[in-house]
Design brief:
Helix content: over 70%
Number of strands: 0
Number of helices: 5
Order of helices and strands: HHHHH
């Protein structure tokens, strides 16, 4: 009983933190670590101690691979055009690691595809050079989680 209440409270806090991340990225184009690290810890607790479709090992592999691959991509693009703003920020890279903890390798790949397509559509319609990636990644993560919970 208490375990279920704690699980629900953790999910509520995760939803609130996700909303704060989206708002911060829309308003200031920055994702504060004060929202990211608690979301990471909640993901670790949930995947380790509660029934979740992702194993802790798969989540850790996805987080590490997501972080390293996107950091390399950001570094390469920054070196191609020196003096220009990097196409992906470190907050986005850390958020990809957090999504990897929550969703594992398959869920991370699905959420990144959805986020990139949704962000591309948003950028075309709004005619913006820079788009906030966090809301699209969180949206893709939610869709990926729903897909994994009900279809797998």
């Amino acid at each position: 009983m208490i375990s279920n209440i704690f699980f629900i409270l953790l999910l509520i806090v995760a939803v609130v933190l996700s909303g704060l991340i989206c708002r911060a990225d829309f308003r200031r184009r920055i994702i504060p670590d004060v929202y990211l690290f608690p979301l990471l810890l909640i993901g670790l607790v949930i995947t380790n101690f509660y029934p979740w479709p992702i194993t802790p090992g798969d989540g850790a592999i996805a987080a590490i691979l997501g972080y390293v691959i996107t950091a390399i991509i950001g570094y390469v693009f920054e070196k191609i055009k020196p003096g220009k703003t990097a196409p992906i920020g470190m907050g986005d890279i850390k958020l990809i690691a957090v999504v990897g903890i929550w969703l594992g390798t398959t869920g991370l790949a699905t959420s990144l595809i959805v986020a990139c397509i949704a962000g591309l559509i948003w950028g075309i319609f709004k005619k913006q050079k820079f788009i906030p990636f966090a809301p699209f990644l969180i949206f893709g993560g939610i869709l990926s989680l729903i897909t994994m919970m009900f279809l797998i």
